[in-house]
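haha ok so turns out i had the wrong file open the whole time. this is the CORRECT one, sorry everyone. sequence first:
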Amino acid sequence: MKKTIVAFGEILWDILPTCVALGGAPFNFAYRVSALGDTGLMASRLGRDDLGKQAFDKIESLGLQTRLVQWDEEAPTGTVQVSFDAQNNPDYVIVPGVAYDRIALTEFLADAVDRADCLCFGTLVQRAATSAETLAALLDRTERPLKLLDINLRKDCYDESSVVFSLGNADVLKLNEDEAHTLGRMLKLRHDTLRGFCEDIVAEWGVEYCLVTLGENGAYGYAGDGRQTYAPGYKVQLADSLGAGDAFSAGFVHQILRGNSLQEAVAFGNILGALVATQVGATTPITQDDIDRFQDRKMERNVHPEFQKS
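then structure:
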């Protein structure tokens, strides 16, 4: 049965060294859940400018519904300058004072969230008061959706207050290994092992699932009842890593909302993330045939040091 998933947050243009691409973690996530057959609704705001029009046209061309996309007459459409290090890991300069900082609370938006099966949010969209207040109101008024916090700690775009608020409203926490260490230091949690970090998050914040993506080394998942699973990474030819974590989140949610196990959900998300990493751009299509062929291949795996047998 098709599920409805609202992604609240940024739509922006990634200004890459060789091209310009539409992105934003919630947008990438909404696209992937839609591509998997669910209904992904992107709740964001665009400037009434050329970049906004191009973004809206691109969203429609990707088959995403646009009824929760707002227009701003004053603020510009969001942009980010993206650069890559020698290992192809991205770094971001995120322009402030843009349209997605001003997402308004409307009854239309609130009703959509009330009816959704999942609400995805992060910390970047909370950097400005208007969008932060809108998100807080949405989280306060509804209990029905599964609340996925894809925390996305972007430099100069979060603080301890927004992190604590977000964790207090999350059913699922998804983050990468670097972010786990950052949160561990900020909140004085164990972060010398993945299990220790996730145990502390669950004990302190009561989340149902704590998920840590590990780049080329796969992903780890821990549940509130003590279940855990590790999916080793796949040795693939990396094109760029943009959108790989968002694809993992989409795959995980797609499985969990259908009652599948933690192990199945983490494994499927891991496959999607690996496939996206082989492509340029976060919204390059992946078909079910692509997923099936990937699963059928006997590929070498990368194992995180914590899970290597002595």
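The chain has one domain: 4-307.
again sry for the mixup
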